[in-house]
Amino acid sequence: MAAPESVLAVNRLAASYGKVAALKSASLRVGAGEAVALLGANGSGKTTLLRTLCGFLPPAGGEVRLDGVAITGLPPHKIFALGIVQVSQGRDLFGSLSVLDNLRLGAARRRRPGPELAEVFDYFPQLRERQRQLVYTLSGGEQQMVALARALMSAPKILLLDEPSGGLAPRLVAEIGRIVNALKEKGATMLLVEQNLKLAAMVADRFYILRDGETVAEGDAAVLQADHKAFAHAYYL
Ligand code: ATP
Asked: How far apart are the CA of 210 and the centre of ligand 1, in A?
């Protein structure tokens, strides 16, 4: 049987900040319904890869394909419209608007049929209760959830999650893990940058390791689930 077409295929992608070649040769694939973890030490190029995938940084080489179609070098709004949607720790929310308005804005920008508000609130019961509250008055963890909920409202083909555990207490990290797993059960496709190996082990099917801007290893997340400390040691994370 032929391998199913990847939703996202990245081949030898490179990107620079001026003379700093932050991404040299990153390659990965994410299949439909898969959650793939992108791991690597600080400064290895994970965030740069996400920024390049979203079109915020122009690629200096390599190729990106979405559902088999080359999209390398397209501007951010086109990439978003095609369905690559980044969730970045609640930093880009509209703080002076309510939870509901932020979610409606997510829906307003979508180009495909997507979920209803009620369906998205089912993943985030505490947001349903706080839907009239202004976003800047929410806790960091709640804002993270609004960011994820808003991304879902925009009907993504693939979600790029940038450190969803960032700055959260362990209880909330576990909660994010449960939500990501619930999304997976519904068939969501995700690429997840994560420093927290426990969370990566909880949600990922496969992993890639980035070192100095290059993909140096990949594998089944079972290795990570078995012993994440040994895993970190093996890959010098
Ligand atoms: P972390 O886990 O610490 O977030 P990362 O793997 O996401 O790290 P990047 O943020 O992608 O790593 O950084 C990769 C390299 O690019 C680093 O050497 C970093 O110093 C450099 N870099 C990142 N942003 C810029 C920038 N705006 N200008 C110049 N260099 C940058």
From this structure: 12
Q: How far is CA 162 from CA 124, 126, 165, in A?
A: 19, 22, 9
pLDDT, tens only, 15-58: 999 999 999 999 999 999 999 999 999 999 999 999 999 999 99
Nearest ligand 1 atom, CA 213: 14
Across 184-201, average pLDDT: 93
CB atoms within 10 A of CB 128: 16
Contact 88, 143 (CB under 8 A): no
234 Cβ inside 6 Å of ligand 1: no
The residue contributing the CA closest to ligand 1 atom 4 is 42
pLDDT in tens, 121-147: 999 999 999 999 999 999 888 998 999
Length of the chain: 237
What pTM does this model have? 0.92
Contact (Cβ atoms closer than 8 angstroms) between residue 159 and residue 188: yes
The rounded distance, in Å, linking the Cα atoms of 56 and 137 is 29
